[in-house]
Amino acid sequence: MKKSTNRRRHHELKAIAKIRDSRIDTSDIPELTEEQLRSGTRGQMYRPIKKSVTMRLDADVIAWLKLDGPGYQTKANALLRQEMLRAYSQKKGPERDSTSSKKAKRIRS
Known about the structure:
single chain; 5 helices; 0% strand
Protein backbone atom coordinates (compact mmCIF):
# COMPACT_ATOMS: atom_id res chain seq x y z
CA MET A 1 0.00 0.00 0.00
CA LYS A 2 1.36 3.39 -0.98
CA LYS A 3 1.93 5.83 1.86
CA SER A 4 -0.36 8.83 1.65
CA THR A 5 1.17 12.30 1.59
CA ASN A 6 -0.09 15.03 3.92
CA ARG A 7 -1.63 16.95 1.01
CA ARG A 8 -3.42 13.86 -0.31
CA ARG A 9 -4.57 12.84 3.18
CA HIS A 10 -5.90 16.36 3.79
CA HIS A 11 -7.78 16.23 0.46
CA GLU A 12 -9.29 12.82 1.30
CA LEU A 13 -10.37 13.95 4.78
CA LYS A 14 -12.04 17.05 3.33
CA ALA A 15 -13.92 14.84 0.85
CA ILE A 16 -15.07 12.51 3.65
CA ALA A 17 -16.15 15.47 5.81
CA LYS A 18 -18.42 16.68 2.99
CA ILE A 19 -20.47 13.44 3.04
CA ARG A 20 -23.80 13.95 4.79
CA ASP A 21 -24.41 11.74 7.84
CA SER A 22 -27.59 10.41 6.25
CA ARG A 23 -25.52 8.91 3.41
CA ILE A 24 -23.23 6.92 5.72
CA ASP A 25 -24.29 3.30 6.29
CA THR A 26 -23.72 2.41 9.95
CA SER A 27 -25.89 -0.72 9.95
CA ASP A 28 -22.85 -2.96 10.45
CA ILE A 29 -21.70 -1.02 13.54
CA PRO A 30 -23.54 -2.14 16.70
CA GLU A 31 -24.65 0.47 19.22
CA LEU A 32 -22.60 0.63 22.43
CA THR A 33 -24.37 -0.57 25.55
CA GLU A 34 -24.38 1.38 28.84
CA GLU A 35 -22.01 -1.25 30.30
CA GLN A 36 -19.53 -0.73 27.43
CA LEU A 37 -19.68 3.03 27.88
CA ARG A 38 -19.08 2.73 31.65
CA SER A 39 -16.13 0.36 31.28
CA GLY A 40 -14.46 2.31 28.46
CA THR A 41 -11.05 3.85 28.91
CA ARG A 42 -9.77 7.20 27.67
CA GLY A 43 -6.36 8.12 26.46
CA GLN A 44 -5.21 4.59 25.71
CA MET A 45 -4.12 5.57 22.21
CA TYR A 46 -2.76 8.98 23.27
CA ARG A 47 0.65 9.80 21.78
CA PRO A 48 2.07 13.13 22.87
CA ILE A 49 3.76 15.32 20.31
CA LYS A 50 7.52 14.91 20.44
CA LYS A 51 9.73 17.98 20.41
CA SER A 52 13.44 17.89 19.71
CA VAL A 53 15.53 19.47 22.47
CA THR A 54 19.18 19.73 23.38
CA MET A 55 20.08 18.90 26.98
CA ARG A 56 23.39 18.68 28.75
CA LEU A 57 23.41 15.58 30.95
CA ASP A 58 26.13 14.09 33.11
CA ALA A 59 28.23 11.48 31.27
CA ASP A 60 27.44 8.78 33.83
CA VAL A 61 23.70 9.40 33.42
CA ILE A 62 23.97 8.99 29.65
CA ALA A 63 26.07 5.84 30.09
CA TRP A 64 23.44 4.38 32.42
CA LEU A 65 20.63 5.21 29.99
CA LYS A 66 22.55 3.52 27.15
CA LEU A 67 23.28 0.32 29.13
CA ASP A 68 20.21 -1.43 27.70
CA GLY A 69 21.18 -0.54 24.14
CA PRO A 70 19.06 1.39 21.65
CA GLY A 71 16.16 3.38 23.00
CA TYR A 72 17.95 5.41 25.64
CA GLN A 73 16.08 8.60 24.66
CA THR A 74 12.76 6.77 25.03
CA LYS A 75 13.91 5.51 28.42
CA ALA A 76 14.88 9.05 29.49
CA ASN A 77 11.52 10.37 28.32
CA ALA A 78 9.65 7.64 30.23
CA LEU A 79 11.58 8.42 33.42
CA LEU A 80 10.89 12.15 33.07
CA ARG A 81 7.19 11.52 32.34
CA GLN A 82 6.91 9.25 35.39
CA GLU A 83 8.43 11.94 37.61
CA MET A 84 6.25 14.64 36.05
CA LEU A 85 3.08 12.62 36.72
CA ARG A 86 4.22 11.88 40.28
CA ALA A 87 4.89 15.57 40.92
CA TYR A 88 1.51 16.60 39.49
CA SER A 89 -0.35 13.98 41.51
CA GLN A 90 1.32 15.06 44.77
CA LYS A 91 1.50 18.83 44.45
CA LYS A 92 -0.32 19.71 41.24
CA GLY A 93 2.97 20.77 39.70
CA PRO A 94 6.71 20.57 40.17
CA GLU A 95 8.12 21.72 43.50
CA ARG A 96 8.96 25.40 43.49
CA ASP A 97 10.78 26.93 46.36
CA SER A 98 11.75 30.57 46.65
CA THR A 99 15.37 29.99 45.54
CA SER A 100 14.44 28.15 42.34
CA SER A 101 11.92 30.82 41.32
CA LYS A 102 14.53 33.56 41.95
CA LYS A 103 17.01 31.60 39.83
CA ALA A 104 14.45 31.23 37.05
CA LYS A 105 13.79 34.99 37.09
CA ARG A 106 17.53 35.69 36.86
CA ILE A 107 17.93 33.28 33.94
CA ARG A 108 15.03 34.82 32.03
CA SER A 109 16.41 38.35 32.49
